[in-house]
Amino acid sequence: MESHPINQHYVPRVLLKNFSSKKSHVWVYDKQSKKKEWSFIKERPISKVASEQYFYDKIPNTKEGSYEYELGKLEREIEPIISKIIESKDISILTEKERERFSLFIALQHLRTKSGLNKLKRITGDLEDKINHFFAESNNFDYRGLWFEMMETAPKFSKYISNKIWFLGESEKLFYCSDHPVVLQNSSVQDSLRGTLGLDSYGIEIYMPISDSLILCMFCEKLLQFTEKKTPLLDYHNRDYLLNANSLQIQQSERFIFSSSNNFEMVEECM
């Protein structure tokens, strides 16, 4: 009988392997170690990065109720879809079902990381502080429970992603991935009072690198109209485009940036 996984990845190996420096390793830039002036660039086994012990277990080391199994099942579905895109360099060849499942994978990947969990913890912590300011001390929020509930609603978020206009961008093996690979940007709408980075916000842009040479770009369907059947490759050989894509990975990461080579010049440029 297969034992319950101890080391659970919040960035799946089906994605990280496409940034491998060799068969089972990846180069890692550690922002936290950099600040502490420790050794901060290492080549590490993919099996030991972007993971924590019992990360998706509701009760540590307990199979019952763990999200690890549902996420693993989806990852196994998505692996051939990612391979299909990488081999063809054409997003339009996906079937409706494949696009639907890939959209769910992207929605969950946006929620399931340590960064996603910590962001929710900060939001609930701020709300708890405000409540305690006016009322008696409340019990601590169950932010992990709320996080699990949010992952249950991922199919709703995935519809927003599926409706976007999808393109692929290409570089010469220069894309970074991070410990929070689904990143958001809005170049069209700036508003200091209202958020503009919701998955259904007008003008939203969603990016996820799927290999060191390909990035999936999803643009707001309310802003952009596109009718061609075969979507062209966007040219990320342009350094400004490449720098923007990598800077989003760097800025929105929790701690780690991954690369297929020991080349982190753009990280240093953006830090």
Tell me about the largest β-sheet.
Answer: 5 strands, mixed
Low-confidence stretches: none
- Fraction in helix: 25-40%
Q: Which class of secondary structure composition applies to the elements? A: alpha+beta
Number of strands: 11
Span from first to last CA? Answer: 47 Å
Q: How much is the average pLDDT?
A: 91
What is the overall silhouette? globular
**Radius of gyration, in angstroms, nearest whole number:** 19 Å
User: Strand order, biggest sheet?
Assistant: 7-8-9-5-10
Number of domains: 1
Succession of helices and strands: EHEHEEHHHHHEEEEEEHEH
User: Can you count the helices?
Assistant: 9
* Strand fraction: 15-25%
What labels describe this entry?
single chain; alpha+beta; five-stranded mixed sheet; 271 residues; 11 strands; four-stranded antiparallel sheet
What would your notes on this structure say?
This protein is α+β, with helices and mostly antiparallel strands and 271 residues long. It has one domain (7-270). The protein contains nine helices and eleven strands. It has helices at 13-16, 31-35, 68-88, 96-111, 114-134, 143-152, 154-162, 239-252, 265-270; strands spanning 7-9, 25-30, 41-45, 51-53, 165-170, 177-178, 183-185, 205-209, 214-219, 233-235, 256-259. The strands form three sheets. A five-stranded mixed sheet has the order 7-8-9-5-10, covered by helices on one side. A four-stranded antiparallel sheet has the order 3-2-11-6.
